[in-house]
Amino acid sequence: MAAKIKLQRKGAKNKPFYRIIVQDESEARNGGAIEILGQYDPLKEPVVFTVDREKTLAWIAKGAMPTEKVRILLGKAGLLPPVDLAALHKRKPKKEVAEAAKPAAPAPGGPPAAVTPSEKEGGDPAPEKA
């Protein structure tokens, strides 16, 4: 069983708050938790992040891996070494992802377009139908 320390979403529509939980990694996001470690409320000013320090460090010692967001929060809370946010990968916008998936246009001066069999034989290309 591989355990993860992750966020479990709670709260009403457009008013989320999260529990920091230990969960088997194969469980669904809102599935059963092994243990509740704390809570995180990003909408309050200042942001509320409370976690049981001893339980969290015990689970990390047992091999539980925090998710990326929980790892950042634990770093800010001082439980783990801080994370360099500039070094993290950033998601690309959907437009960039879609453009990268399109095939590249042939470069000018590159290889010619496909040659038809009649052109290979030295004849004229097939006449176009109007």
- What's the CATH class label of one domain? Alpha Beta
Span between termini: 69 Å
User: Structural class per helix/strand content?
Assistant: alpha+beta
CA gyration radius, whole angstroms: 27 Å
Major pleated sheet:
5 strands, mixed
What is the chain-wise order of helices and strands? Answer: EEEEHEHHH
The CATH architecture of one domain: 2-Layer Sandwich
Approximate shape: elongated
CATH fold-level name of one domain: S16 Ribosomal Protein, Chain: A
Extended strand count: 5
Strand order, main sheet: write it out.
Answer: 4-3-2-1-5
% residues in beta strands: 25-35%
The count of helical stretches stands at 4
Fraction of residues in helices?
A: 10-25%
Give a written overview of the molecule:
The chain has 130 residues and is of the alpha+beta class. It has a domain of 76 residues: Ribosomal protein S16 (S16 Ribosomal Protein, Chain: A, 2-Layer Sandwich), CATH 3.30.1320. The chain is 25% helix and 25% strand. The chain is built from four helices and five strands. A five-stranded mixed beta sheet has the order 4-3-2-1-5. A hairpin with a 2-residue loop joins β1 and β2. It is elongated and about 80 Å long. The N and C termini lie far apart (69 Å). The model has no long low-confidence stretch (mean pLDDT 81). InterPro entries: Ribosomal_bS16, Ribosomal_bS16_dom_sf. Belongs to the bacterial ribosomal protein bS16 family.
